[in-house]
Specification:
With about 240 residues, the protein is α/β, with parallel strands linked by helices. It has ten helices and seven strands. It has a seven-stranded mixed β-sheet with strand order 3-2-1-4-5-7-6, with helices on both faces.
Amino acid sequence: MNDIKKLTDPLSKLNIELSDVQISLFMKYHDMLTETNKVMNLTAITDFNESCIKHYADSLSLIKATDLSEKGDIRILDIGTGAGFPGIPLKIVYPHIHITLLDSLSKRIRFLNDVIKELELNDSGSISTIDMRAEDYVKEPDIRESYDLVVSRAVAGLSILAEYALPYVKIGGSFISYKGDNAVEEISNAENALKILGGEITDVKSFTLPDSDITRTLINIKKTCPTPDKYPRKAGLPNKKPL
C-alpha cells in the first residue's frame, strides 16, 4: 500500500494542496504507469516514493517559474512528453489548462490516451496527444507560434530544445526548460541559438526538489520576435549541428 503522504508532503512544500479527487487521480496514474511499464519501457523510475519526487513534484515545480492557478485560457505544449511528464501532473492539478502532449513514439501516445480516458482529464479545459516529431507538428495549419507556453523535460541541450520549442511559442509567450545543475553552461552555449530563434532569457530559478538533494533549474525564455520559417531544421540537424 503506497503512503499518500509521500505524494502530498513534497507537493505541499511547493504550496500545492491536493484534493481527495486529485490524490485519487495521481494514484490511478501511477498504477497505470507501473503496470504498463512491465510490458513497455516508459520510465526507469517506478517506485512510488521515488516517483513522487522525481516525476510528480519535479513536473509541478514549474510553478516556481510561472503561476498557472489563475490563468484561464492558456494553451500549453509539452514537447517530448514521454510517459506524460510534466503534462499529466500539470493537468491533474490545474484542470482548466489546455495542454497538448507531443511525442514521436506511437506506443507512448497510446498509453497517454488510455490515461486521459481513464482519468477523465478532458472534462474541463482540454488535453490532447500528438504522435509526431517536433520538427513536423509545427508545419500543421495554425500551429506555428500559437502556444502561450511550451515546456519540456526532454534530455537535450538548451540550444537544441530551443530550436524545437520556440517556433511554437507566440510572441510574448514563453518556453520553460527543465534543467539540472549544469544550467549555467547550457545557457552560455545557447546564447547564439536564442538570438537567432527570437528568444530571450527572462528568469532562471535554481532550487532543490522537496525532500531530496536533487538540483532543478527552470529557464524561462520569452518569445520576443518571430522565429525564422526555416527553423526548426529537418530531423537530426539540430542535434548534429546545434545553432
